[in-house]
Amino acid sequence: MENPNIFKDRLHEVRKSHGLTQRQIADSLGIIHQNVNNWEKGLSMPSIETFVKLCKYLDVSLDYMAGVSDDPTPLKRD
What is the C-alpha separation between 68 and 27, in angstroms, rounded? Predict the structure, then answer.
């Protein structure tokens, strides 16, 4: 990631825009809410598997959350 803060900033932005709490995200991913809190503080990062689940749950592209793209639209596969 070019900007190490991009993930934490985008996670917070997308979570708020969906009207979700950290606990709701954690529950949907089967993790403790402290993990999501740590991600938003920039203290830790999710595993690759959890990152993919998170992006699917939030309906945003992995590239957007990683700061590779400014387009949050996920790729649609047939």
Answer: 27
Q: Which two tokens stand for residue 24?
A: 């709701």
**pLDDT tens sequence across 26-78:** 999 999 999 999 999 999 999 999 999 999 999 999 999 999 887 778 766 54
d(CA 64, CA 16): 16
What span, in angstroms and rounded, lies between the C-alpha atoms of 36 and 76?
Answer: 26
* Domain annotation covers residue 78: no
Please state, in angstroms and rounded to a whole number, the distance separating the CA atoms of residues 69 and 64.
5
What amino acid occupies position 16?
K
Q: CA dihedral in degrees (16, 20, 54, 7; nearest 10)?
A: 20
**Domain total for the chain?**
1
- For residue 68, the tally of other CB atoms under 10 A from its CB is 13
